[in-house]
Amino acid sequence: MARTNRKSASNTRRAPLTRKQLLPMPTARARSLSLECHLGLATLHAGQGSADTVASLLRAVYLAYVIDRLGHVEPEAYRNAEAALERCALRAKQDDRWDVTDEEASMIARILAVLDTQLASQPLHRYESALARVHYLVAVEKRSPIPEPSA
């Protein structure tokens, strides 16, 4: 009788999460990430931004969307923030001016406030998983994780 070559259940299981991964990220790290995002927005709003600033803020918007698995914030708010950053990049291509309007800054700030709450409350493993997902979607698939509105 031939034996089937099955993988044992232990080979397909993930490693158990550590205590550190089950707790929210350390407060100092969450504040540092939050400060980086808010300073980036302030820099753009002051007209002193760059492509790196826009990329960093887009990553923050995407991260907040991916972490928000339960849909506490409507997808339209994420799309608005993403569109504001894309408009900024388009304007910069035309006249090398990296800035956002007051209205655009408000849209982005709303999502950064959501991310602030997430960083302070979500388990570290969710942040790490979401960050890996965002990196994959942006770097490999070259697309936004935020879906287009349904018609």
In summary, what is this structure?
By secondary structure, the chain is mainly α. It is 68% helix and 0% strand.
Model description:
It is a single chain. The chain contains 7 helices and no strands. The model has no long low-confidence stretch (mean pLDDT about 90). It is about 70% helix and about 0% strand. Helix 3 crosses helix 4, helix 3 packs antiparallel against helix 6 and helix 5 packs across helix 6. It has one domain. The protein is globular. It starts with 8 loop residues before the first helix and ends in an 11-residue tail after the last helix. It is mostly helical and about 150 residues long.
Overall tally of domains: 1
* Number of extended strands: 0
Q: DSSP strand (E) fraction?
A: under 5%
Count of helices? 7
Structural class: mainly alpha
| Global morphology | globular
Q: How do the helices and strands follow one another from N- to C-terminus? A: HHHHHHH
First-last Cα distance: 57 Å
Name the average pLDDT: 90
Uncertain residue segments: none
User: What is the C-alpha radius of gyration, as a whole number of Å?
Assistant: 19 Å
Largest sheet: none
Estimate percent helicity. Answer: 55-70%
